[in-house]
Design goal:
The protein has about 130 residues and is mainly beta. About 5% of the residues lie in helices and about 50% in strands. It contains 1 helix and 11 strands. The N and C termini lie far apart (about 40 Å).
Length: about 130
């Protein structure tokens, strides 16, 4: 049974940093597409970043480029989202997601078609 559990959320000042973690279990192998999504009150869910290995390939939504970094520990499978230069508009409920690596991992950033999701963690950025 695949299970994803997020942690690392919290409250920071405008311009601050946070690193989100997503522990993963129940995966039969390392051939997975992983991603981070967020949803703010009154807004639809938005893809933040996705990645896959062999070799590591990452893709970000425009607002995250240059500020956020997605990565994964190849040993234990933990997924990370390092966030810097945070802005109030980054305030949202962040969730990690996973899918078997298929023909379109990057496309899942926009489609959000991941079969496995974590419970999420809140990120609040104060001005």
């Amino acid at each position: 049974q695949v299970r994803l559990v997020e942690s690392g959320g919290g409250s920071v000042q405008d311009g601050g940093s946070l690193r989100l973690s997503c522990t993963a279990s129940g995966f039969p192998d390392s051939y997975y597409c992983m991603g981070w999504f967020r949803q703010a009150p009154g807004k639809e869910r938005e893809g933040v970043a996705v990645m896959y290995d062999q070799p590591p390939v990452t893709y970000y939504t425009d607002s995250a480029k240059g500020r956020f970094t997605i990565s994964r520990d190849p040993v234990n499978g933990t997924l990370y989202l390092q966030m810097t230069s945070l802005r109030p508009e980054d305030t949202a409920f962040y969730s990690c997601a996973a899918a078997r690596l298929g023909i379109s991992c990057i496309g899942r950033l926009d489609r959000g078609d991941f079969p496995h999701w974590g419970q999420g963690t809140q990120v609040t950025v104060s001005s």
